[in-house]
Specification:
Blueprint: E1 2-4, E2 15-23, H1 31-49, E3 53-55, H2 75-88, E4 94-103, E5 106-115, E6 118-124, H3 136-139, E7 147-151, E8 154-160, H4 169-175, E9 180-185, H5 193-208, E10 211-216, E11 218-221, E12 224-227, E13 231-233, E14 239-242, E15 249-257, E16 261-263, H6 274-292, E17 297-301, H7 306-319, E18 324-328, H8 336-349, E19 352-355, H9 359-368, H10 370-373, H11 380-401, E20 403-407, H12 411-416, E21 429-430, H13 437-450, H14 456-460, H15 480-492, H16 497-502, H17 507-519, H18 521-525, E22 529-530
Helix pairs in contact: 1-2, 6-7, 6-13, 7-8, 7-13, 15-17
């Protein structure tokens, strides 16, 4: 256990402390740029809010997560240069930052206190998660000691991320005299995580009779979205302060510290609905992926169906209509109402819109394939060719104009392979990759409650890929109200087929869905990344072999 600086005695007069939580979006790998963001935020917090201390999120110096950039030989040099830059700035407010730090040849996920131009405290994360999307044991050793450091005359305990999830770190900090505990976090958004987060903070604060500041990352990195949502709990376990979610900003909190550090209570923002929080995560994911990777604009295929309509809405909200190009690519099976509805949405949103029939391109391919296809009957090959022609059109527009292609497939389709490799899966980012179809309907309703941009008929008409006459999704799949719960149990909860049947689902439906999920792993390996919103998304979360003899019954 490490204790630095003087702690207050019970006879010490009350001490006022103003802490500013810097809820910010950092770019992974841009250590010099992130350093300047930290300096600018600290200066602004002091000038505008008279901050005594500014608290930043976990790993803010490198962004989270740098992944194998942490193996680069120059990492230590770059981090050292950044820390010297921060010290030389001699900021008026103390700052608490997150960074990878090597000590005695071992790399740690660290929290650092810099006050008066000196590093006055170092703490090494004690719980390094190695599940779900986290691979911290691949990079970091776990710390073993609690650290309490005097910051602006107040004994402050340091924790990082999952340190709150186990007994020990907060308890030991409180036992060492901490009156305020900081938790620097980079906790990705998932649908149900907010409630668990709040419950854990409430329990740690009340059990140890300390105030806890939770400072979380905001923005997005590849498939992970971060919702910020900084919070302060008082020693009774009461939520006293909360920052808006999905919003960058500097959020001041006043404490009166004597026997305890008591935060001044502030009006709490309204909690977001599930639909609003998911939609906000999708917008953040698209915005940061496009902007951080330097794309000028995006292009997507607008079919007149629900998924592309919802993806277009997200793209417009993320980037502005001037950076969004919607392309309708009709074929002989495209209905008139699809054309009408697609144009209506594009016009309402003010995005660039154009129509390019794929009929001549498809006919050219079929003519070229006439000899090898001779004597065969039409099947899904011809349907897939339609999707692949559309993919070629979109990728050509992407290459010519520097636009990122957004794909629009949802999680339900991706799970069962109801998508075409090198066709509707061709692109750089899948907006709805982790959104089940039933949730997509709810998100469309939510977005229209803000302002009506998706035509009502798009939401109410039966879903169809329109790759064959009078085609409906449910001709080939169970209804989405059946499909999605089965997928949730199999993909996200790891239930066996037998266990799902025991939940009341028809065995024929379950076995069919499970077989399709297993068969289509090879497709998902080649799919673009997309925003993760559930606790088990396809990608880093769920890593199953393509070639396998595993039987899914039990």
């Amino acid at each position: 256990m490490t204790v630095s600086g003087n702690t207050q005695s019970s006879s010490t007069p009350p001490h006022k402390l103003r802490v500013v939580i810097a809820q910010q979006d950092f770019l992974v790998g841009d250590i010099p740029g992130n350093t300047e963001r930290i300096i600018d935020a600290a200066k602004q917090a002091y000038a505008q809010e008279e901050a005594d201390m500014v608290v930043f999120p976990e790993m803010c110096l490198t962004g989270y997560s740098p992944e194998d950039l942490l193996f680069r030989p120059s990492l230590d040099l770059r981090v050292d240069e950044a820390l010297k830059r921060l010290q030389n700035e001699k900021l008026e407010a103390a700052i608490v930052i997150g960074a990878p730090l090597r000590s005695e040849g071992v790399l740690y996920n660290a929290a650092l206190v810099i006050e008066g131009g000196e590093i006055t405290g170092r703490y090494f994360k004690r719980v390094t998660p190695n599940d779900s999307v986290f691979d911290e044991k691949r990079y970091f050793e776990a710390g073993s000691e609690a650290v309490v450091v005097s910051v602006c005359g107040v004994p402050v305990g340091l924790t990082i991320g999952d340190d709150l999830s186990v007994d020990g770190p907060v308890e030991e900090s409180a036992a060492a005299g901490a009156k305020l505990v900081l938790n620097l976090s980079a906790s990705p958004f998932t649908i149900h995580q907010r409630a668990g987060r709040k419950s854990l903070l409430e329990r740690r604060a009340s059990e140890n009779q300390v105030s806890i500041i939770y400072a979380n990352l905001v923005g997005a990195q590849d498939e992970l979205a971060y919702d910020g949502g900084a919070m302060v709990y008082d020693p009774s376990g009461t939520l006293a302060v909360a920052a808006p979610r999905f919003t960058e900003g500097l959020y001041p909190v006043d404490f009166l510290c004597h026997k305890e550090c008591q935060p001044a209570t502030q009006a709490l923002p309204a909690e977001l609905s599930l639909e609003e929080s998911v939609y906000s995560a999708l917008v953040a994911g698209v915005r940061d992926y496009v902007n951080k990777n330097g794309f000028k604009s995006v292009v997507l295929g607008l079919s007149g169906g629900l998924d592309s309509a919802l993806a277009l809405a997200v793209a417009g909200d993320a980037l502005g209509p001037e950076r969004v190009r919607a392309v309708m690519m009709p074929f002989r099976y495209t209905s008139d109402i699809s054309l009408i509805d697609a144009e209506a949405q594009a016009e309402t949103m003010g995005v660039q819109y154009e129509v390019h029939s794929i009929e001549p391109l498809y006919d050219a391919f079929m003519e070229a394939l006439a000899v090898p296809f001779a004597g065969t009957t039409p099947d899904t090959t011809e349907q897939n060719l339609q999707a692949r022609v559309r993919g070629v059109v979109l990728m050509s527009l992407s290459n010519k104009f520097g636009s990122l292609v957004l794909t629009t497939g949802n999680k339900s389709e991706l799970a069962v392979g109801y998508s075409t490799l090198y066709g509707d899966m061709a692109g750089g980012f899948d907006v709805l990759k982790d959104v089940p179809k039933t949730l997509a309907f709810r998100l469309a309703r939510y977005r229209n409650s803000v302002s009506a941009i998706i035509p009502e008929r798009v939401i109410t008409r039966p879903p169809s890929a329109e790759l064959a006459p009078d085609q409906k999704d449910e001709d080939n799949l169970p209804g989405y109200d059946v499909l999605d719960p089965i997928l949730h149990l199999y993909v996200e909860k790891d239930y066996s087929a037998d266990a799902i049947v025991a939940e009341g689902y028809e065995r024929a439906d379950v076995e069919r869905v499970v077989r399709l999920v297993d068969l289509n792993e090879y497709k998902r390996r080649q799919a673009p990344i997309g925003v993760r919103i559930t606790e088990r998304a396809f990608g880093k979360d769920r890593r199953y072999p393509i070639t396998s003899g595993w039987k899914s019954g039990r």
